[in-house]
Amino acid sequence: MKKVMGAAIALWMGMAATTAQAAAEAQPCLTEAEAQSLITAVLPDVFQQFGRTCSNVLPENATLRGGLPPLVARYQAPADLAWPQAMAAFGKVGGKDMAGIDPKLIRPMVGPMIAGAIAQDIKPRDCATIDRAIGLMSPLPPANTAGLIVLLASVAGGKDKKDSPFTICPAAAAVPAAARP
Known about the structure:
Layout: H1 2-8, H2 10-14, H3 20-24, E1 29-30, H4 32-54, H5 68-94, H6 103-119, H7 127-137, H8 142-157, E2 167-168
Parallel strand pairs: 1-2
Helix pairs in contact: 1-7, 4-5, 4-6, 4-7, 4-8
């Protein structure tokens, strides 16, 4: 269970490597919507990096091999739509270092940077678990996948905040589940 949870929240934890200076300061609080937008915006790059990292140890019928191109294509349009809110969330995480940076310049770097940070910790023995987790999530709509990752990260991240580049704002500040569309 620990490995599956780790694979599902790898996106979250990998972001810590991209925000070392922000981690030294007070952790920013992101709403669930901001965190979900950030995850949605980088998922295609993360999936591609997972595929590159694990392709030599997985069978041809693995999701991260044969099923990867259609999965990435299905996630790309929602990633593009999520980008404006994701950039605002990334700005909160990056703090003062992000002030004044043109979003058009940073867009091509954010996804690969986060994906690379996550992939550097993947060991060949982790690839089957990651492939299984992505395979289980792949039928979900991209918004649900990102929402699930944020939910798992908020549950797991609440135990060890030092590895997380941000926290999810307290539930009291969020809209009750019954009021969500």
